[in-house]
Amino acid sequence: MSSDKIIKSFNLFLDSHNVRNNDKGDDIVYSLARNPINASDGQVIKISLQNFNMYRNFYTINANNNKLNIHNTSTNANIVLSLDSKNYKTIRQVANNLKDKFLAALSLTESSSTVLPAATDSMDATSDRIITITAVVSTSHGFTAGDLLLQSYQDNDSAELLGGKKILSAYQSDTTNSSYTISYPNATTIKIVGFYPAQRSTEEYVYLRTDLPNSNLESASLSAAKSDHSAHIVNSNILARLPMGFEFIHYDANYPDEYFIETQSKHISEIRLQLRDSKDRSLPTIDSTQNTNIGNIKFTCVLKVEVIQKFIPNNLETQHPVSTIPGTKLSGTNYVMDRFSKF
Question: Of 70, 131, 201, 258, which is most buried by a Cβ count within 10 Å?
Answer without folding.
Answer: 131
